[in-house]
Each structure stands twice: as structure tokens, then as C-alpha cells.
Amino acid sequence: MTSPVIGTPWKKLDKPVSEESLEGVDKYWRTANYLSIGQIYLRSNPLMKEPFTREDVKYRLVGHWGTTPGLNFLMGHINRLIADHQQNTVFIMGPGHGGPAGTSQSYLDGTYSEYYPNITKDEAGLQKFFRQFSYPGGIPSHFAPETPGSIHEGGELGYALSHAYGAIMNNPSLFVPAVVGDGEAETGPLATGWQSNKLVNPRTDGIVLPILHLNGYKIANPSILSRIPDEELHEFFEGMGYEPYEFVAGFDDEDHMSIHRRFAELLETVFDEICDIKAMAQTDDMARPTYPMIIFRTPKGWTCPKYIDGKKTEGSWRAHQVPLASARDTEAHFQVLKGWLESYKPEELFDDKGAVRPEVTAFMPKGELRIGQNPNANGGRIREDLKLPNLEDYKVSEVEKFGHGWGQLEATRRLGDYTRDIIKMNPDSFRIFGPDETASNRLQAAYEVTNKQWDNGYLSEQTDEHMAVTGQVIEQLSEHQMEGFLEGYLLTGRHGIWSSYESFVHVIDSMLNQHAKWLEATVREIPWRKPIASMNMLVTSHVWRQDHNGFSHQDPGVTSLLLNKTFNNDHVTGIYFPADANLLLAVAEKAFKSTNMINAIIAGKQPAATWVSLDEARAELEKGAATWDWASNAKNNDEVQVVLAAAGDVPTQEIMAASEKLKAIGIKFKVVNVVDLLKLQGVKENDEALTDAEFEDIFTADKPVLFAYHSYAHDIRSLIFDRPNHDNFNVHGYEEQGSTTTPYDMVRVNEMDRYELTAEALRMVDADKYADEIAKLEQFRQDAFQFAVDKGYDHPDYSEWVYSDVNTDHQGGISATAATAGDNE
Description:
The chain folds into 3 domains: 19-378, Rossmann fold (3-Layer(aba) Sandwich); 408-457 and 466-602, Thiamin diphosphate (ThDP)-binding fold, Pyr/PP domains (Rossmann fold); 626-797, Rossmann fold, CATH 3.40.50.920. Helix content is 36%, strand content 12%. The protein contains 27 helices and 22 strands. Residues 814-824 have low confidence and may be disordered.
């Protein structure tokens, strides 16, 4: 699917912008400024009817003015452009503190009252609109999901361009003006975002217009880009592949209509250039165009009092937040506020009932062309379910024929085959994103049906493999970009997956946090935001097999971050540990069908056994955890001496090897595998988790449980704290030990190896009785380590082990040596 074409995109205006439209823009700007100030300051008497007193001012003045008037100006002009050109447009507000501008915009285009009927278009509704802003029981101060038209909250700076460019991919009619603020322009992710123009194609994608809004200051300091010389600033953006157009306003006494006229002319020049780029792209295999961008310089706090208490306010850092913090407390500040509000001449903007006058909004777009109503800004409205291939076609069927534990297969390579065919069936609504790791993470089968999208020059086919101007795979060595691109893609109604090395997922922890908050707000209280496709994240090259890279690449803690988002039954995160290829396929199918979630799928890319059939995998996934009866030698829970549990592919491997050693010693055990981590969570916090009765049936009521866990042990302890039998859990997880070393040594230093797990199980059953066996195991651990030190490879007892259920005459797959040969990471 592609997002719907709205209006008549990329049409030049065949006449000058009318004075009537510009007068409307000016009225819009004045009204939006008045509405913005009212949201920050007023709790009652929104139109200052007499008596207007300090009692009408909020007790707590919360919000930000400094960036808001410039945003109001830009939104007015973008509305004019949309209406005149009938252009399909989404507006990205990068400055984090421009929330009053966003809510004012949707109030003025009518969508706010449509989604929130209690905010009526009269004085009573206006009072509610003002009072709710940053107020108990009200709305947040950012361009939040509660605001119609937003797909970028700006609560965390740096991602405006990533979201904007993700939104235009496979969306050729979409125009995205993306405003970048002074502070955001100084962040690492935003600096990376300027490179996005090399990864889109004007023929198949939309167009982003970056607008650098320089008002000179951040919270309390000047901004870097506002102070460097103009020549240096322009050369920087020219080097980034843009043609910068600079606009300066508000620093002298130029009348507002003249300013509007100049900006409208500039915006038409820029849009004409964009239309030419789009037209040429339809007829030529054109070289990457030089895209226009605008440097928009205005005073911080534009149109507020120039001085307050004798100190410069407009055009200084003092305008950043609430310039009149004592407006309720002192009559002097209240009078300044009153004069400031009156300067916008509200009597010309609102009628006697408190409604916005028709002439204020007459120039604005109608219907779905409105910024607040564009379906691309509520992507669930246009999202279609993915067409998914038959999972049976990708399963590892040999496990059914030759026994549990068959083979040595790279699970993510099988997932790569599956995603290849998802792209084939959904050629313009599913993308793979990755920071230079798509092939390394074994998803390269996609290149059989698509290429990596790249518009930055080519050498030869032998040098630049699988690269083209169009493609459904995007790679840039920036986790910020990959996550941001995918967010923008999902929020505008499409689907995808991105992969990353496990330790590098931490680079975007805060982005995951922000996206989860967006989803939480949506799920809890915004029913008009329709469900979007889930963010699916393949976390691979994980801690237990980072023997290429060492300690710096060993950190599984993304699970701990996501567990912080698992309360209140919001169900916006999924954490999955598929132990083999069939479980990975089942998890992927579930993830691709899900909505409004972040699905973290932790799966290794190195050769490993296949433990269960696809049918068994699906059954296990449905419950989240399963007893592997075929691997257990206790007939029932009464007979169990110890429960052997695992979550993760390498922990499962080690538990299975330990089970055979315990069987030889005569211990009775059951094996439990956990694939959906959150099903362990207590039912008070997660109404989709295992019931206490189910938990007790799986883990027993009173028997010791040895749990081998992929990540940090405290994850499990925090999840099961109120579960039956939780005191008997002994969790082994990653212990922050590692190096560039062998697979055996990696599990050894973290007390996760099969020998230590066997010894630990014996201690839990009867340490005294099995003291000799425990001593032998501990000695062999050291001997096996010394073997690796001496030889440079692992002891055959470790590296050549095959589960006893397997018919070794048919033990297939790829060897560890063959699988890792030539692996770039």
C-alpha cells in the first residue's frame, strides 16, 4: 500500500500569493500567539472581559514561549501553502517546547474541537482550552500525541529529521516541512539527520523541507549555529547537500504584512524548486538533487515585551520559558501581561461569543488537507494488515524427523528468508532498517527482491553490491536514524523491522523510551489515534556470542529498560527470547501482526540447534512458556527434584547440556523454556501473563528452580517477586564479565556454562550428597578453560556436544567454522 494521495500534489502556483491570503496569515499568527499566551497564563476570563484581574492567571505558570511565536508564524504560512497548492502535508515540530503552537494550530483548523467536543468554539470552550494546558488533569506541554496532526512530540530533541524522512519513504505525495530548533541543532542525532537526503529518492518518496529555526538561544545560552558567520553556516549546509535560503525577520520595525509578503515569496520559490525536483525525477534517472532548506532567523520570544523589569526579554534567553513569572503575584507584571495580550488586538480576532472570526481561518485548508486531520498524521487510519507468507514454508522441518536438538542453523538467516518474502508481498509498505548490519545479522536474503536505497553515488557493481536509488532496505551507521526512520514510517501507516547489535541498542534507549510513552498515552486515553504497526526490533550479535568484539560489545540491558514500560496493563512492549529458528519464526509472525507495541526479539545469528517443531513453537508462544516434556525425565511435579528453566538461545543450549549430565547422575528434573518474558510478570501488573495456577503448574509449587537467563538476573527477580515459589528461584544471568574469547569461556566467566549449571543444580538438590560430583565439575571447568588457553579453541566436550535425542546420522546444518568464516562482525 501507499498512503493516500490527498489533493493535487506538487503543483506550482500560477499567480502571486493574494493579499487576502496574507492578511489571513497575519490574523492566524496573531490569533495563534494570543492562544499560546493564554494557554501558558490564563485559567479564566480568556478574552480579558472586565473585570480582568490577577485571579484569572494560573497559580503555576508552566510552558514555554520563546520558540512558539516563530512556530506560529511558520504554521500560518504552511497552512497557506497547503490551501493554495492542495498539497498533502505533515508538519514536524522539532523544538521541544513549542507545544502551545501545536495545540493552537489544531484549535484554529477545527480538528481540536472535533476530537475533543468539550473544547467548544466559544468563550466557555476557550477557557477550557486555556486551563487544560500543563494543568492537573489536562494536557502536556509538548506537541504530544494528544494533539491532532502530531507525529513527533519533541519531548526529546534530535529526531525531527529522522522522523520526517521516515514519513516520506514510499509516500511520494507527502510534503514534510520539518522545523529544527536551536537546541536540537546541537544534538548528535540531528547532526546525523542532515545526511538523510542521501537515502531517499524523489521519484518514489516524498520531500522533506528542513527549516532551521534560529532564534539565538537555548534555555540560558546562545546557540552555536546562530552565532557562526553566515558564510560558514551556508557552506555547512551546502556541504550537506542542501541549497540554503535565509530569511531574517523581527529585528527591526518592519511591518508585519511586509514580513509575511517576503516569506510567502520565499516559500513559493522554495516550493517551485521542490516541484521541479519532483517533475524531473519522474522523467530522468537524475543525479541526487540539491534539496532546498530554509534558515529562519527571528528573535526568541518574538512579539513579547522587549524589556521586562528593565532587562532585555524579546531576543534573549529570558524569553525561553515564562517571561512574566510573577504575573499573578505582582500587579506590575500583571499589567505587562495584559498589555502584551492586548497587543494582538483580540477584538479583531474573536467575536462577542468567544469564537474565532471566520476571516481568521478563511485562507486555511479544508477537510483532510488540514494539518490536524491529515491521515498520514494518524497512520492507523490508513494502515493495512501485512500480507504474510505461509510460515510453514520456512520452518525447520528436520527436527520433526531427526529429533529435538537437530542441526546447526543460523536462526536469523531463516528469519531473513521470511522477511524477504514479506517485502515481495508488500513491496511499498514494509522496510528493513539497520546500521550497516543487515547482512551481518543474516537478513541479506532481502537483496534477492530489493536493494539498499542509496542516492549518493556509485562505483561498480562488484564494489557497491545490492545498492540502488530505490529499495526497501535502508542502512546508515546510526542507530538513531534507523529507529527514527522506522518510527516515522510506522506513524504514517506502514510496517517494518530494524536490527542492531545488542550492545548498540543502548544508543537509542531514550528513543525507545519516548516511543513507548507515545504508545502508552495512545493506548490509555486517545481512542481517535488508530493503532499503528508495532516497532519490531531484532536484537542480535548478542552478549553470549560477541567473541569477535569483546567486553565493550557485551551488554544485554535493553531488556531492563523495556521492563520499565510494562506496568498498568498497557501492553506496549514485548520481550521475546526465541531459543531456535522455529521459535524465532513464530515470534516474528506474532510481532508483524501486532499493533501499538515495541517488540524486542533477542536472537543469536550463530549456528545453533533447533529444539522444537513449528507447531510446538507456536503452542509455546501462545502461553509464553512451556514444559519440554520430551527433555524432562520427571513424570510429574511431585517427582521433580529441580526445575531447569531457560530464556534465550545460549542459556537454553547450556541448560539442555546440563540436563543430560544430571540425567546421567540420576537427578529427576523438568525442563522449562520461556519465550515471552512478560508472561512471567505478576497478574496484578499484567493481565495477559500466566495465571498463578499456570505458573505453579510450570515451575512447581515448592521445588527449586534453576533459571538460566540471557540478560541480567534482576529482570527475572523483579518479574516473579509475587509469584508462587519465587523464593526457590536461583537465577543465573549475565554478570558483567567478558572479553574477546571463546564461546565456552564467555559462558564460564558468567557462571552460565553447562558444568556450573549442573553443579548448581546438584547443590540445590543436595550439596553434601553430590559433593564429589560437584568437585569434578568445578575441576573440569578449569581444565576446559586451560585447554582453550593452550589451544585457542574450546574443549571437544563443549564444542562437539550434540543432544542425545538427535539421530546423529542425520545431524545437518552448517558447522560453526563455516558459518563464521568471512563474517564481518
